[in-house]
Model the fold of this input.
Amino acid sequence: MKNEQGRLVLTHSTYIPGLIPILEKLVQIEGIRTVTPAVIGSVRSHSPQLKLKISVPIRGGFKAIARQGKSVQEVFILTTLEQDQLESAIAQCLK
Done:
C-alpha cells in the first residue's frame, strides 16, 4: 500500500499565525486526506500558544478549532483515523 500525502486546501487569505506550518505537517501523516482551514473569528479569552483541538465529528472526518491569541479558526480534517489517533497526530505536529 503506497503512502499518499494528504492535501492542504488554501482558499482564504487570512490564517491564524503559525497555523499553516502545523497543517503542512499534519497532511503528511498517513490517513489524513484533506485539511481545510475555514472561518476565522475572534474571542474574548486569550490563548498565548497555538492550540488545535478536535471539536465535533463530521462526515468523513472531524472539525477542529485552532486558537491563538484572541483569534479562532475552524479547520476541517477529512481522515480515516479514529479521534484518539488524530488527537495524537495533532499533538505530534504541535511539538
